[in-house]
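[Q] Does anyone have a clean structure-token version of this?
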Amino acid sequence: MTHHCACRPASGPTALWFCRLLLLASLVLCSFAPDTLQAAPPAAALQQRLADISLLHSQLQEKIQNAEALRENLYDEVKSLRSEVLRLKKEKGIRSFADAVEIPRIRYNLTLIREIKGYIANFNDKIRFLRIGSDKLYYLYHQAEDDLRIIHTLNDHKVEALQAQIEGVVEAYLPEAHHLLIDFNRIPYEPPKRIWEEVLRGTQ
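[A] Here you go.
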């Protein structure tokens, strides 16, 4: 970049000295300008990651509690349906699965139990997934906390590796922080006869 001065050569040594001073000042300012665009220092970046981990961990714990509560409601519904099936079985003297499905109410209850058990299986998978994520975040939080205490002794590569690991876990579980993502279009259904046998054994 070319810097132009307002002084004239005829104005003497003082004006020339003033122009050089302005040029030097502009170069100094330019040399400091990029610093404002630099990334945050490692310690500050790691502190931000600690805050991110803490928030996400709290949100996952809340989702786990919500999922467990919903799952318990489903278990209670299965117990209620099973009790009704057993009562009807006793009242009508039913001895086989073939006889049981001839009773509309029993057939309906068995179908509903089958569907609810599929939902429960999905909730079990989701709760397991969230617990794994929660454990990973807990571990990373304490690792980052320990590294932050000795940040001045760590090389940049190790700090960057830890931040990349944190980012991977956060990105994987962040969608779960806002919504309990369960695909009810993919429900594992058991054969109706197996449901009937489980009802009789009391394994619901």
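[Q] Thanks! Anything notable?
[A] Helices lie at 13-32, 42-92, 97-100, 104-149, 156-178, 192-201.
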